[in-house]
Each structure stands twice: as C-alpha cells, then as structure tokens.
Amino acid sequence: MNENEPIILTRAGFEQLQRELADLETRGREEAAENLFEAADDTDVAEEETFRDAMNQKSMLEARILQLKQILAMAQVVDEDPDPNSASPGDRVVVWDHQEKAEVIFDLLGGAEIAMGRRHGVSIDSPVGKALLGKRIGDTIEVQTPDGVARYTIRRLEQIPG
Q1: Residue 105 in contact with residue 154, Cβ under 8 Å?
Q2: What is the pLDDT of residues 59-108, one digit of tens each?
Q3: CATH code for residues 81-159
C-alpha cells in the first residue's frame, strides 16, 4: 500500500470496512481482553503457551485495526460513475470471452476491496482491469494473461450490486 496513493473503494466496500473496524474495536477487543485475563490467571507452566497465544492474537487484532484505519483514511470512495458510458472503478463489466465463448463478469475494484474477497472482482491495477478502464460497450480488448492472450468484447456496463 503506497502511502501517497488513494485506495479506491466502492461505497459498499467502504461501509464493510467501517463495520469490521467497529466490530474489532468493540467485540474483538473485549474478547481479546477476556482471553488475556483468563490466560494470565493460569499459573501452570503449560499455560504459558496459552498466554503467549492470547498476546499474539491481541497483537494481530491491533495490527488489523491499524490497517483498517489507514485504509479508511486514504480511501477514495466511488459513489457515482463519472462516465456511465465507459468502464470505471466501481462498475460491473460484462464481457464476451472469445476463447471460452461465454459471458464473464468483472467487477472493477481497487486492490483493498479485492483483498476483502469481493466476487468476480478484478483489480483496476491488474492487466485486465487496466485494459477495461475507459472502454465502452462494443469495444474489444486483448490482454496478456498467464494462460495466453485473452480477447474480450464489452457487452454491458452495470452497477455492482450492493
């Protein structure tokens, strides 16, 4: 994550991260504190590992909270499509795959949102994502992929369902 580069998120992705942060800061921290208290209460040498595990879990929780705060602070939220006639971040692009002879759906998303596991997502920084950006219905693109050159024709541009 480049410190100076905005992180592009859809409104739904931004809100999902906000919910996760709120949950970790409340329920997550409460659970971590309970686990630490229970582990610290045990004096058995065998339980030292339990305490270390509880400390590690607390550290990972705090690292995720910090990461979410950084992402949200640097987020550029895509609320409206700047040009509904061309593919842009936050669009669902339905293409015809000439090799597979089938429709394929790509949700154009930023890398942070892809990491969250959005289905059909393709990073706007990936070769396919870069090739789709700015293209219009009827445009055909060719992209080098690990499996060779892929050829797609844009059939529809839609909003990504919330």
Answers
A1: no
A2: 999 999 999 999 999 998 887 767 788 999 889 999 999 999 999 999 99
A3: 3.10.50.30
